[in-house]
Amino acid sequence: WPDTTLPSLQTGALAELLLVLLGLKVPGAASCPTDCVCYPSPMTVSCQAHNFVTIPEGIPEDSERIFLQNNQITLLLRGHFSPSMVTLWIYSNNITFIDPNTFEGFVNLEELDLGDNRYLRALAANTFQGLVKLHALYLYKCGLSSLPSGIFGGLHNLQYLYLQDNHIESLRVADCGGRADGKVLAHIAANSRALHHETKPTLPNRIVGTAGDDGRTKWKIANSR
């Protein structure tokens, strides 16, 4: 019988090359998780709206953007993600618990959307510790009734903090994070009837509410003149 192995191998190699040229496959990259779509440059994993109850296995370690919104995920644990991650959207899930070490060492993380997880009743004080590049943190529509003191400490680049539609009874301005020099440039969208001001020379003591384009009230924290 004629040997058809070589033509078959050549055909397979051409198909692989075509996928690479079209940007649909990354050379040497790990396979994409089942039911997800992956894109290169930067490595992006899109797994939204597939009724996942746990973090899908097989997320490439070099993934920078991970989209897991609109699933049924309940737990976030250490080892679920890689420190190369820059953006994580995991809003509209059923998260009840976040291991305080989940994001340990994630010095590249810039945007973290945990919003609309209505069963997330509590967070540990060190949940976001060490996220030195984090500039946007979304915790809206969770079941939070309080936040531990210092939870946003050390988030020197935090500019946007969304806390609306929770049950938070009090929140000190001093606990809202911000730049290292104390000039907080944050916009806080909060359900806070009781944002407790703690005025210090380097801390803001004036809050101005404005309506955002998305319909959310944005509370701009700024230094009084």
UniProtKB/TrEMBL annotation:
Signal sequence, start to end: 1-31
Keywords for this protein: Glycoprotein, Leucine-rich repeat, Repeat, Signal
GO BP terms: negative regulation of axon regeneration
GO cellular component annotations of the record: cell projection; cell surface; membrane raft; perikaryon; plasma membrane; side of membrane
GO terms for MF: chondroitin sulfate binding; heparin binding; signaling receptor activity
Listed InterPro entries: Leu-rich_rpt, Leu-rich_rpt_typical-subtyp, LRR_dom_sf, LRR_TM_domain-containing
SUPFAM superfamilies in the cross-refs: L domain-like (SSF52058)
Protein name as it appears in the record: Reticulon 4 receptor like 1
Species annotation: Meleagris gallopavo
Taxonomic lineage: Eukaryota, Metazoa, Chordata, Craniata, Vertebrata
